[in-house]
Amino acid sequence: MVRQYPHRIVFTVTGNSYRNGQGNWVEGTPSIIEYPGRVEANSSGGFLTDEDGKRLEYSWTLYMPLPVQDVPAGCNVEVFSGADKICKSKLKRFSIGQLNARAWL
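Below the sequence we write its predicted structure tokens.
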């Protein structure tokens, strides 16, 4: 039987920095977001265009079932197949569509 989402995708999102009572900046607490998904290598040489019109090369496309929460670009992402780590990278873009969510690393 073929599983549509055989992988585990782990996003590590850093919380917002804030000033404490003494006026010093404190880093936000990271949070972990985990979803089932499927990862595919970018074998076609495709690319994304960022907000400034620059070309972004990516190595992996991730697909996740809905519902998911929006994940900010730049966070750390790890993809696992069972206990084996398939890839680890920074998130370049995240998109929630009508039928699934996609992310590019």
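The radius of gyration is 16 Å.
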